[in-house]
Amino acid sequence: MANIKETPTRAMNYADLATLAEAAGRTDLVEFCNHQIELLDAKKEKAKIKADEKKKAGDELQARILDLLTDEPQSKDDLCAAIGDPEITPAKVVARMNNLVKFGFATRDVAKTEDGKKVTVYTVATETVDAE
Description:
3-stranded antiparallel beta sheet, Arc Repressor Mutant, subunit A, 12% strand, alpha+beta, 132 residues, 2 domains, elongated, single chain
């Protein structure tokens, strides 16, 4: 196995610097380092909360898309139009549809349009797969 060296984070660097400053008796530098570590921790917590909110919003969108699916084939553009929210892009719809197909809630197929172009269409799955 190859030796993998862990890259130190900014918080780790500040902690090391605080230890050295404490040994040298520099309380002002120790306080500065501790404050910087607190700021980094707050930033990390805020990023985690924001990521959780995005995930929850994505789950809501996935549920809305699943509610819109029928036995009739629908393209990503059809689903975007049915949702009617300008914030919802075709890319977001396709990402949620990939999850629904992956877990067996929807099926994916290719159909030809009237002008001969191939388009991916989605339908609700008739049989659900039991996950064990």
